[in-house]
Fold this sequence. Notes:
Elements lengths: L2 H22 L14 H12 L11 H4 L46 H10 L8 H9 L2 H11 L6 H12 L8 H6 L8 H13 L15 E3 L16 H4 L7 E3 L21 H13 L5 H11 L29 H4 L2
Antiparallel strand pairs: 1-2
Helix pairs in contact: 2-7, 4-7, 9-12, 11-12
Amino acid sequence: MKKTTGVCLLACVVSFVASAAGATQKPVEPIAPATGTNEAKAELGKKLFFDPRLSKSGFISCNSCHNLSRGGTDNLKTSIGHNWQQGPINSPTVLNSSMSFVQFWDGRAKDLKDQAGGPIANPGEMAFTHDLAEEVLQSIPGYVTEFKSVFGKEKINIDQVTDAIAEFEKTLVTPNSRFDQWLEGDKEALTADEQAGYKLFENSGCISCHYGMGMGGGSFYKMGMVEEYKADSPSEGRKDVTGKEEHHFMFKVPTLRNVELTYPYFHDGAAQTLTEAVDTMARHQLGKKFSRAENGQLVAFLKTLTGDQPRSRSPPCRLQATRPRNPNRLSKAVQGL
Length: 337
């Protein structure tokens, strides 16, 4: 895309977002605490989220790549999976993921439940199968009792597993950031530099992609709208799902919530710091070069987006089999893992 075309398109998008914001008062909204979740189902989902027995090795859990003590990520350029395999893409944060309109960078999962089953069966991640995961859980009396209490059925299936994990992930929201406090009327919550950073964020066009409660997660955008972006990652973004050339390097816009914690940045994990990320996005997406002072103000603002973190303490391992992976209860396929 030529620079002039990219700038023109960006101007149209900014104009649209500005007009939409006029109708709803604010293009960005404070995060609200999670409500309406099924507490028992979410508690079951929490156990499953932390349970490495859903992996072939017995060492990898959902929390391995979406560590709740690290902003819902692993802080690696790309994640490490089964047999120390290096993943092809940066692991996005699970925090506030319920606010995204689709899941994964390329949007291949329509919701959290759809997403939850992917890593379990991915040979490069947890490397299990859904059938074997069901068998393992069915062999654990504590899980059998809890699944029956939540779903009313004796037999555990993968649909219940992903439903419970998704319910837990819906609780992983991070309200009460200093920026949210400022939006809600506390004008002392941000410093002058942080407020100047937000004005730059609005006036430069960043808000055309990073809008709404999640400040991202609501659209696909081309990485390299103004200046071509060259990545180490083999991912081609949305094109990997649709096969369409026009979707090349179209990625889901990531949330900026808790962005201070979720380094390194971008789908290829190429930017190690917020300063570097701001500079890269300005050049490739906006056709701008911020001064050192402007970059500092933007970074200062972005650090105000860190909200209250969910309690990341893993649940006690009470749900144990009578004997670990009891050979009398599991299939030969499971015994051979």
